[in-house]
Design brief:
This protein is an alpha+beta fold. It is built from 26 helices and seven strands.
Length: 700
């Protein structure tokens, strides 16, 4: 039998985590939370959670759905409240003190859940319910919950013997600790690698970016223009910086992040990959990639390989053609094309060949209009929801804004779905990238509605001037909001099946579908208005964007494939594999995969690939999810368009059959329910301009 839990340490009544928040929908009382509140609350609720688990195990009644699975779903609510606030704020408000506490809590979190998932007595009860699930008069959602928890426990090592469980716990602890170090070093080096430039060095840069970088420098107490690094390898200003030496400096700062000195992440990445390889072997898998794929819609690494291999050769062919054209443009300036020149001359090709001028586009993409008249408006037209500002509700930072999400069903009274929080501007203490997360999960069992957060990293314009977005940032906004819709529309009973708790290679699918509305003519006309004149984005410019949609896909696809195949390479090593130099391993892996190109680095290199090494995104061996999900996305976009596009009927179908159901049913069944058939890779190849060079049209 399991050892009895430790006594629950008392929690002072004035700790804001002592009881659920009394704010609407359980929005945390951020203004009351101080650093010193986290650890006592953590220890109190971790002990309480283990006591709840012990009570489930000690129940003398025969294991059944209610006394085992439902009890498990109800357990740990206090700890969940603390963890959601803390780990979300570590991403958005990563002060030195928060990072130090994270270094302590990350391994403790891993140990805590190992204590539960590797509890043999608890698994024995779950296994008993799982064996008899079809004899218990359970409905489909209840069966899905049993199967989900059973798979979670098995893949966590519940079937290992005592020695194996102890080893796996140790491995998990080490990975959690190293992942925290990786993220901390990446954040520090990214901040240190920002370029402080003079006005003369910013030649070619638009007025809005000049103002934003000047404001960023002022915030740091510097004079000049501070160019902070975005997370991907390619930096936005590489498209406009006229000084080639400055472009080279910016590019080198980006691709060499966290790769030397005290913040060198290469050996940490290698250690994490080796530890994961050993974990997979303990669990009976050849590689960590095989372990991950087994619980995804892909099911096998071979299926992942089959999809990726369809794209490598045509992407390389298109990339080579693009490079040849870019070299023609670079030759006008008497230079040989280098990687830091790619974006610069690509923008010239767009302007000359396709009449797309990114500098002319940006004034049409003012943040507030994109948000209210674009992102929100598309959701209103498609799904019948509106967004009411709640200035009375306070976020965790003065720049965080809160909206109440109101549902207006075609028949029936309006209801409140939950809350939407937006944190849109870059900060030094904020990790790079863009993401969606939640502070409260939807669950009928717990009586909770979702509190959803969108985080972007847009350079904020000086006070009193509008913040303008690039076209890529507009698409990113629509993408991340697609994740929010997935969470907001969740309509399930059990927390484990709620919202975006779907397989990793499916979770990006709804968000990628939502990107289609960014350039939908009806939506564009509503939000893309010139910030000074109010003029609607001219149809000629919109037509040019559509004509240019395939341009650059060789590079873009190669970037994604590079990161995807690098992720797969790291997570297919053996635990005893001898890797002398992690950077050399990266280079050799890309060569072996047929995607290596000096001009086009992977979207993320090893040392700043936080998706797979920082432990924050859960994409280890799963970065292929973006391309895998895009197969489904491209197919679904064609379904929308063939059925009338932006209609409430289409939105209601997509919402009811796919967005609302979480993991209560097989995701691929939900996809087929909407589209009417199995997925086909052809629409994706067509979208990316790769169809002519691909072999065959067989389904994905």
């Amino acid at each position: 039998m399991s050892a009895p839990p430790a006594p629950t340490p008392p929690l002072p009544a004035d700790n804001p985590f002592a009881r659920p928040s009394d704010l609407p929908f359980g929005l945390p009382r951020f203004a009351d939370i101080e650093l010193e509140h986290y650890l006592p609350a953590w220890e109190h609720f971790a002990a309480e959670h283990l006591a709840e688990i012990a009570a489930i195990v000690a129940d003398p009644a025969v294991p059944d759905f209610e006394n085992t699975l439902v009890a498990l779903e109800r357990s740990g609510q206090g700890l969940n409240r603390v963890a959601l606030v803390f780990f979300n704020l570590v991403g958005s408000m990563a002060t030195a003190d928060m990072q130090q506490l994270e270094a302590e809590l990350s391994p403790r979190l891993a140990a805590h859940f190992d204590e539960i998932k590797l509890n043999p007595d608890l698994f024995q009860r779950i296994d008993a319910v799982h064996r008899g699930r079809f004899d218990l008069a359970l409905d489909a959602q209840q069966i899905a919950l049993v199967e989900r928890h059973h798979a979670d426990f098995v893949l966590a090592g519940a079937r290992l013997d005592a020695q194996g469980r102890d080893e796996l716990k140790s491995l998990n602890q080490q990975v959690a600790t190293l992942g925290s170090i990786f993220q901390r070093q990446l954040l520090a080096d990214t901040e240190a690698s920002a370029l402080l430039l003079t006005g003369a060095e910013m030649v070619g840069v638009g007025a809005d970016a000049m103002a934003a970088t000047a404001a960023a420098a002022e915030k740091r107490g510097e004079q000049g223009h501070l160019v902070a690094l975005g997370l991907p390898s390619q930096q936005p200003l590489l498209a406009s910086l006229g000084d080639r030496d400055v472009r080279a400096r910016l590019y080198e700062a980006s691709v060499n992040r966290a790769s030397a000195g005290e913040t060198d992440n290469a050996p940490i990445a290698q250690q994490i990959a080796v530890l994961r390889a050993r974990s997979a072997q303990l669990l009976g898998f050849d590689t960590y990639a095989d372990l991950v794929a087994s619980d995804q819609t892909a099911r096998t690494s071979a299926a992942v390989d089959a999809m990726l291999s369809r794209m490598v050769r045509p992407a390389a062919a298109r990339r080579a053609a693009e490079a040849e054209l870019l070299q023609e443009f670079a030759s006008r300036d008497g230079i040989d094309l280098e990687p830091w020149d790619w974006s610069y001359y690509a923008s010239q090709v767009e302007a000359e060949r396709f009449q797309v001028d990114t500098a002319q586009l940006k004034p049409y993409f003012e943040l507030e209009r994109v948000l209210v008249d674009g992102v929100f408006h598309a959701a209103e037209r498609l799904y019948g929801i509106t967004f009411r500002p709640r200035p009375d509700l306070v976020g965790y930072h003065p720049e965080v804004r809160v909206w109440e999400v109101v549902d207006h069903p075609a028949s029936g009274e309006e209801t409140i779905l939950g809350l939407y929080l937006g944190d849109f501007f870059a900060r030094d203490i904020k990790r790079g990238g863009a993401w969606m997360t939640n502070f409260v999960e939807q669950s009928h069992l717990l009586g909770t509605k979702p509190v959803i957060l969108n985080v972007l990293n847009v350079a904020q314009a000086p006070e009193g001037t509008p913040t303008l977005l690039t076209l890529d940032e507009v698409r990113t906004f629509f993408h991340e909001f697609g994740h929010c819709l997935h969470g907001l529309f969740s309509d399930v009973t059990y927390p484990r099946l709620s919202g975006t708790s779907v397989p990793r290679d499916f979770v990006e699918f709804p968000s990628q579908v939502n990107e289609m509305w960014a350039l939908e003519p009806e939506i564009v006309r509503n939000y893309a208005r010139h910030v000074e004149t109010g003029e609607v984005l001219p149809q000629l410019m919109l037509d040019a964007l559509h004509r240019a949609s395939v341009w650059g896909q060789g590079q873009g696809t190669s970037e994604m494939l590079g990161a995807t195949l690098l992720d797969q390479a790291w997570h297919r090593i053996q635990s005893d594999e001898d890797i002398d130099d992690p950077i050399d391993f990266e280079e050799q892996s890309l060569v072996a995969a047929g995607i290596a190109d000096e001009l086009v680095p992977p979207r993320y290199r090893t040392t700043y690939f936080q998706h797979i090494f920082a432990g924050l995104g859960g994409y280890a061996a799963g970065y292929y999810s973006y391309l895998w999900s895009e197969v489904l996305d491209a197919d679904t976009v064609e379904w929308f368009r063939s059925n009338g596009g932006l209609t409430r009927e289409n939105g209601d179908t997509f919402r009811r059959k796919l967005l609302a159901v979480g993991s209560t049913r097989d995701p691929m069944t939900s996809f087929a329910d909407v589209v009417g058939r199995e997925p086909d890779i052809t629409p994706l190849l067509r979208r990316r301009g790769l169809l002519d060079d691909a072999d065959g049209d067989e389904g994905a």
